[in-house]
Amino acid sequence: MKLGIVGLPNVGKSTLFNAITKAGAESANYPFCTIEPNVGVVAVPDERLNVLGKVYNTKKIVQTAIEFYDIAGLVKGASKGEGLGNKFLGHIREVEAIVHVVRCFEDSNIVHVDGKIDPLNDIETINLELIFSDLELLDRRIQKTQKNLKGDKSLQKELDILNKVHAFLETGKSARAMELDDDEREFVKSLDLLSFKPVIYAANVSEDEAAGAEDNDMVKQVREFAATEGSDVIVICARLEEEISQLDDEEKAMFLEELGIKESGLDKLVKASYRLLNLISFLTAGEQECRAWTIINGTKAPQAAGKIHSDFEKGFIRAETIAYDKLMECDGSLATAREKGLIRSEGKDYVVKDGDVMNFLFNV
Length: 364
Ligand code: GDP
Prior knowledge:
It holds the Pfam family MMR_HSR1. Keywords: ATP-binding, Magnesium, Metal-binding, Nucleotide-binding. Its cofactor is Mg(2+). Belongs to the TRAFAC class OBG-HflX-like GTPase superfamily. OBG GTPase family. YchF/OLA1 subfamily. This is Ribosome-binding ATPase YchF. The longest helix has 31 residues, at 119-149. With 364 residues, this protein is α/β, with parallel strands linked by helices. The protein has 3 domains: 2-44 and 65-116 and 197-276, P-loop containing nucleotide triphosphate hydrolases (Rossmann fold), CATH 3.40.50.300; 125-195, Obg-related GTPase Ych/YyaF, coiled-coil domain (DNA polymerase, domain 1, Orthogonal Bundle); 298-362, Roll (Ubiquitin-like (UB roll)), CATH 3.10.20. α1 (13-23) runs parallel beside α8 and α4 (119-149) packs antiparallel against α5. It has helices spanning 13-23, 47-56, 85-94, 119-149, 156-170, 182-190, 217-228, 238-244, 249-259, 265-276, 301-308, 310-314, 324-329, 334-339, and strands at residues 2-6, 39-43, 61-62, 65-70, 97-103, 199-204, 232-236, 279-284, 290-296, 316-323, 344-346, 356-362. α7 (217-228) links the parallel β6 (199-204) and β7 (232-236). The protein is flat and about 65 Å long. It starts with a strand and ends with a strand. It is built from 14 helices and 12 strands. 42% of the residues lie in helices and 18% in strands. Guanosine-5'-diphosphate binds at residues 7, 9-15, 72, 105, 107, 110, 204, 206-207, 237-239.
């Protein structure tokens, strides 16, 4: 899963990104870990893996991870090709979702590009660039559809939706905020519009507000706006995250407790990403390795198997599976679970659930 980090200059993107790369330093052994400088990998915390690891006395625990892309350099005028505009918009097209960092901290030493801190204005500046780029795409698509309509009247429906989306974007709102029926949604999704991508607004607050139970006024504004388009908000302090990222697990727990913070910002970010993208994890367990795998909720067994290896998907026969909680009722022992008849055999139409411990049987 790929998410892109965007935001105006000086809002804390690099600081957050540094925290991500440092926290993910150990992730060098993720099989899909890229070494590009603009990619950071964050492990998805999953306590179930540690428990399974103990039960199986496993050699290796492999967490699943989310990749974050640093898409710096998005500035006003990007859609007109200013700065390295088009290149950055292209990067956004490649990610599944966007983390939009918004400055919600006061600090007179740190200059704001527009001379004042105004989260809603910042959000609008970035969102408008994406909307402008989408409008151009829609213009081209509308022209093409109008031309083809002469030979194929069935395209009228598509043209209607294209015009509807165009009119909506012209009001300055993002496509993700539109009310659409299922068919329309399916079609709009296929257009690959930037402003249709799901967004998490990361409200970057100051160190002394990170533990605050109350949102500051700027965060409140961000929440209100996010609600109008069904987006998620997390409150983080990028600077603290950078410090936290250099600690080991034990030190981190102590540090957070001292500060009165329940959960680190990165953990919040990972959870929000899971929620936003409708992701779940299934597990595999054994002496060699206990491991979590990310899939989209609704994925069927063969495609889930394909996450492990394409041969598993091609040669899929069936899956032996048990829910993590059920397995724990048998003290984690697959043998006991088998004796009790709790291990189910599932076929190719089985929809994998979060926490399913899977064993795939396949033909080679
Ligand atoms: P970018 O341009 O969006 O990548 O912003 P940077 O991450 O470089 O941050 C710009 C400045 O803001 C740097 O001096 C950071 O140290 C500072 N900064 C980032 N996050 C925070 C924060 O949470 N609190 C404070 N006080 N400063 C921050």
